[in-house]
Amino acid sequence: LERCLREDREQCISRTAELAVMFLTKMGQQELGNMLLDWVEEQGKENGEAMYTVGRYMDYDLKRTREAGEMYRQASELAPNNPLILREYLMWLDLEAKDERALERFLRPRRYTRGSRKGLLELESPVLACEASVTVKQLLGEEEWSDELWEFAYDEGVGSDCVKTNWQLHHDKAFEESHSPWQFFLDIFVRRKLRSQIVSAAGSGVRF
Questions:
Q1: How many CB atoms lie under 10 A from the CB of residue 75?
Q2: What is the pTM of this model?
């Protein structure tokens, strides 16, 4: 670990966080996993990806949702342009904390790029845009911004579960009722809207 830190500190910490969670959840190596997790929490306080990975473990595996939410918040501050982290924190605020004020504080500054913090659309994540479009519409009342997010989500992620789930929140009909087999054919083969994604089978994919 010492050599790893010297060679590439940020990648070392974030990858070790994933390794610790893998030992704890998939390999049954509790002692080793907890030792690595303690090391990550000590070394990774300024590493957004590591904070997210530990927070997700607390959220999904330990069910310590309040602590997880704080780690998501820290991760979103440390890695403000990581769409996976932003989506997780957005969903936690919406579904778990149900904190509308925090949601508004989180979303409003992200309509446009400000300094090094990119606007939500500039992050080019269909899933993040899809999830945010509903909150922007229903909570913030920003119809134009919501439409921009939704259009991008549909154009770049027509096959995603999020688009199918949220379709009726933007339209009168369910997704399946609005799309004939011919429309699916056009979207996939002519308009080329279907996108492939590479994800990790072992980790969360936060580093990619």
A1: 27
A2: 0.88
